[in-house]
Amino acid sequence: MNSIAKFFTIYWMIYFPVCIAYYDLPGFKNVDEFMTAVLIVYTFMNKWHIDTNTEPWKEYFSFLWVLGCYTLYSLVRQVNVSGAVWIEFVQQIRPYSVIYCTWVLNPRFTEKQKKWMLTAMILTLASWVYYHPETTQNGAQVEFPVLGQLAICTGMAYYLFTEETKRNKYIALAIVMVGLLAPKFKFTGEVVCFIALFFFIKKQLDFKSPKTIAIVSILMTIVIVVVWQKFDVYYVSGWSNGALARPMTYKTSLQILWDYFPFGPGMGTFASWGAAEYYSPLLYKYHLNTIWGMSPNFNVFIADAFYPTLSQYGIVGIILFSIYWKRRLKAFNEIEDMKYYRVALMAFFCLAIEQTADTSWLSGKGMGYCMLIGLCLNANRNLNDNENENDDEDEELVRRIN
Fold first, then answer.
1. Predicted TM-score of the model (pTM)
2. What is the pLDDT of residues 10-30, one digit of tens each?
3. Could you tell me the residue ranges of all domains in the chain?
4. Residue among 352, 353, 63 nearest 230 (CA)
């Protein structure tokens, strides 16, 4: 177990600066793909390790089989070129594999290792603010999504890796609030969720309960009110604006679900990096090529939100995606330790909110949330192991006394 924890400590300390903070620096362009491959290979190398968690393997192989089927379907259907399909394959395998691999490896860190990881995260966050003085000079006039992702991940990790006290809760919140120096509207909503979940929710949420539904509805209303200006631009008044890229990708994705029922047009065909890199024929078909940011020569807004990318997989893909997260939410609600429960649910909320106007779930920037989710899914297993170890120690002590 020490070797796995050591590997993951080093992995975490490398990942945080190079895949979130400074991912856009020269030489770091494909580091996230490399690190994903390293994690997958290391996990398979330790498949039979005595201390790993074998429970996720069956589901992980099922995911790989489904992804393989969709890849084959996309290559055969040929709505876009094979290069676009393989780009989408690399992006899709990343987040699920990071969750499953972290869940399988089940690293159990020492206090020293936790301090090393937290130190790396806090220094990375501080260095990013230092090298971007415009965040403090112009405040909210400047928006940096990276800052919010750094801050929220560091705050969640601090809360998870330290003793649960009121003082540490407020320190975690203070770390998260650093992201408000230059907030994206999504991050403001995440801060609302963080405060509600970490300071007001005292037990697991029962999503079948009317009370829970009411609480979540109120929370969603508060989030929308806080971010209303941008929400209105993109999803209310902007919905009828045919010149805005993001609303048009959402609207067109609904049409694609109907036109390519039930499996979709295939990977790398719409609202994804593959569709931008190898300009998808669907952008011409649905007359999106004339929209600013979605033309062949300027395509920066083609992959601007995650949810429209689901249309590539059709109704069947959306059902499978929903089943996946339903299973995760059910597993979260079985976590006995509220500390791990809060972090797992917060990571889910971050991904759910950010992907309305971002695709970090499919990029290296989303791997931090995925690793936190994987760690939390092992909470009950580790709690039971610790209890068994304590029982064994007590029995050994009784034997010695007798």
1. 0.91
2. 999 999 999 888 887 777 778
3. 2-52+106-194+335-390
4. 353
